[in-house]
Amino acid sequence: SHGIEDPVIPFEWAQATAELLTANPNYNFHEFAMGHSLNMPCISKLQEFLKNTLA
């Protein structure tokens, strides 16, 4: 995931990385309307990922 308003790591870098990683069928990318931080929707996606990956 990546904040589309992140002033630290450009969103375009995250998009380019996502394009490289899409060869992995289990790869997911989620964008959020925020800067370089975490919010509850982002944390919820992280929890979902960990639950599915570590189960």
Record field, number of beta strands: 2
Largest sheet: 2 strands, parallel
Shape: flat
Spatial gap, N to C terminus: 21 Å
Helical run tally: 2
Number of domains: 1
SSE arrangement, N to C: EHEH
Query: How large a portion of the residues is in β-strands, by DSSP E?
Result: 5-15%
The percent range for helix content is: 40-55%
The radius of gyration over CA amounts to 12 Å
| Overall pLDDT metric | 87
Could you provide a short overview of the structure?
The protein has 55 residues and is mainly alpha-helical. The chain is 47% helix and 7% strand.
Any overview of this molecule?
The chain has 55 residues and is mainly alpha-helical. The protein has one domain (2-54). The protein is 47% helix and 7% strand. It is built from 2 helices and 2 strands. The chain has a two-stranded parallel ribbon with strand order 1-2. Helix 1 (11-21) links the parallel strand 1 (2-3) and strand 2. It is flat and about 35 Å long.
